[in-house]
Amino acid sequence: MSKKPVRVAVTGAAGQIGYALLFRIASGEMLGKDQPVILQLLEIPDEKAQKALKGVMMELDDCAFPLLAGMEAHSDPMTAFKDTDYALLVGSRPRGPGMERAELLAINGAIFTAQGKALNAVASRNVKVLVVGNPANTNAYIAMKSAPDLPARNFTAMLRLDHNRALSQLAAKTGQPVASIKNLAVWGNHSPTMYADYRFATIDGASVKDMFNDHAWNKDVFLPTVGKRGAAIIEARGLSSAASAANAAIDHMRDWALGTGGAWVTMGVPSNGAYGIPKEVMFGYPVTCSGGDYQIVEGLPIDAFSQECINKTLAELQGEQDGVRHLL
Ligand SMILES: NC(=O)C1=CN([C@@H]2O[C@H](COP(=O)(O)OP(=O)(O)OC[C@H]3O[C@@H](n4cnc5c(N)ncnc54)[C@H](O)[C@@H]3O)[C@@H](O)[C@H]2O)C=CC1
Ligand SMILES: O=C([O-])CC(=O)C(=O)O
Predict the structure, then answer these.
(1) Among this protein's residues, is 190 annotated catalytic?
(2) Which of 195, 218, 264, 296 has the maximal Cβ count within 10 Å?
(3) Is 101 in the pocket of ligand 2 (CB under 6 A)?
(4) Start-end of CATH 3.40.50.720 domains in the chain
C-alpha cells in the first residue's frame, strides 16, 4: 500500500538554496523513494519573491515527480507551517562579501521568533525542524525558545555542511574514498570556530589519526580550511554555498528521518549537558539516528586541544545567544 503523504515546509523557497533543494525533496531523495510529499513553500510577502516562487513551482510541475502529492505557495508562516511534519528553515538574509555574522544575527533574529511561534501554533506536534539560515545555531535556538509547546529536541541546526566538508578534506589528505571514512565529529557552532574532530575517525576500520599524526596540518590547514570554506566559496562564486548547502540539508533530514545504521553524523542539537555544554545550547555534536530520533554520541575522551577548541566555539555561541536574549 502506498504511504500517506507527509507535509514538508520550506522557507526561502525561491532562494538559491531553495532552488537546489526542492527538486531533490520532491524526487524522494530526502524521505525515501516511497514517501509522497506535499510541499508548503514560504516566501516573503513581496511581489517579486512570490512571482519567483510561482516560477519554481511551475518547474516542479514540469518535472512530473510521482512523489509530489501537492504544492502550496505561502507568504505567512501561520499557513505555511500548518500541520507540517518537516520544516526546513532556509529563508533568511545571506551573508555577503565582508559581512560579519553579528550583523546577520540582528537581521535574522526577528524572522526566527515569528517562525518559532508559528510552528508552535500550527505545526504537527512531532515536526522535525532544521534551521539552515545563518547564523544557523542561534536561529534554531531562537525558534526553539519561541515554540515552548513543541519538544525542544525537535529543533536542530545544520552542521552537516561542515561535516561533509571535513570528510572531503580528510579523503583528499589520505587519498581514500569519502565513503570509507567513519566516526567524524564536528563540535559547536556553524561558523569558523566549529571544531572538526578526526581523532575518532576510521578508514576501513583503521584509525585516521594513526595514519598521519600531524598536529600542524590539523591546526593550520584542516581546521582553517573547513572553518573558512563558506567564506572561500563566497569569495570564489560571489554567492554563498547553495548546492552543497542543499545537499547537506537533504543528508541531515534523511538521516534523522530514516536513520544512520549506527554511523555518526553531525547535527546541531539542543545540548542535554553532554560534554559540559550548558543545557539547551544549540551545539554541533556527533549523533547517531534511529527510529526517527537522534542520540548524542556520549563519553568520548576530550583532550586539551579539543577542549580548547570546544570552549572557543561554545563561547562564541553563548555570546550570540546573549545577543538575542531580548527577543525571547
Ligand atoms: N547552515 C549552513 O551550512 C548554510 C547556511 N546558509 C544560509 O542559508 C540562507 C539562505 O541562503 P540562500 O538560499 O543562498 O539565500 P537567498 O538570498 O538566495 O535566498 C533566501 C530566500 O529567503 C527568502 N526569505 C527571506 N526572509 C524570509 C522569511 N522571513 N520567510 C521566508 N522566506 C524568506 C528571501 O526572499 C530569499 O528568496 C542564508 O542565511 C545563508 O547564509 C548558506 C549556506 C550554508
Ligand atoms: O558562510 C556563509 O555565509 C554560508 C555558509 O554558511 C557556508 O557556506 O557555510
Answers:
(1) yes
(2) 195
(3) no
(4) 6-157
CATH number for the domain formed by residue range(s) 159-324: 3.90.110.10
For residue 80, which of 110, 50, 47, 48 has the smallest C-alpha distance? 50
Mutate to test the pocket of ligand 2, among 134, 193, 247 (most ligand atoms within 8 A of CB): 134
- Buried b / exposed e across 63-99, counting CB within 10 Å, b at 16+? eebebbbebebbeebeebbbebbbbbbbbbebbeeee
- Give the ligand whose atoms come closest to the C-alpha of residue 108: 1
The pair phi, psi for residue 317, each rounded to 5°, is -65, -40
Cell numbers at residue 301, please?
575522551
Whose C-alpha lies nearest to ligand 2, atom 9?
230
- Beta carbons of 80 and 8 less than 8 angstroms apart: no
**CA–CA separation, 321 and 278 (whole Å):** 12
* pLDDT score of 242 more than 90: yes
Does the domain formed by 6-157 have CATH 2.60.40.1640? no
Whole-number average pLDDT of the chain: 95
Q: The complex's ipTM?
A: 0.98
For 157-195, b where at least 16 C-beta lie within 10 A, e where not — what string? bbbbbbbbbbbebbbebbebeeeebbbbbbbbbbbbbbb
User: Rounded distance, CA 184 to CA 181, Å?
Assistant: 8
Q: In terms of DSSP H, where are the helices of the chain?
A: 16-26, 47-63, 77-80, 101-122, 136-145, 160-174, 208-211, 215-217, 223-227, 229-237, 243-258, 304-324
3-state secondary structure of 58: helix
> Is the omega angle on the peptide bond into residue 135 within 30 degrees of 0, that is, cis?
yes
190 vs 279: CA distance, rounded Å: 18
Q: Give tens-digit pLDDT for 79-132.
A: 999 999 999 999 997 666 677 767 777 788 889 999 999 999 999 999 999 999
Q: How confident is the model at residue 33 (pLDDT cuts 50, 70, 90)?
A: very high
Q: Is the CB of residue 56 less than 8 Å from the CB of residue 18?
A: yes
Point out the ligand nearest to the CA of residue 247. 1
* Catalytic residue from among 163, 190, 215, 252: 190
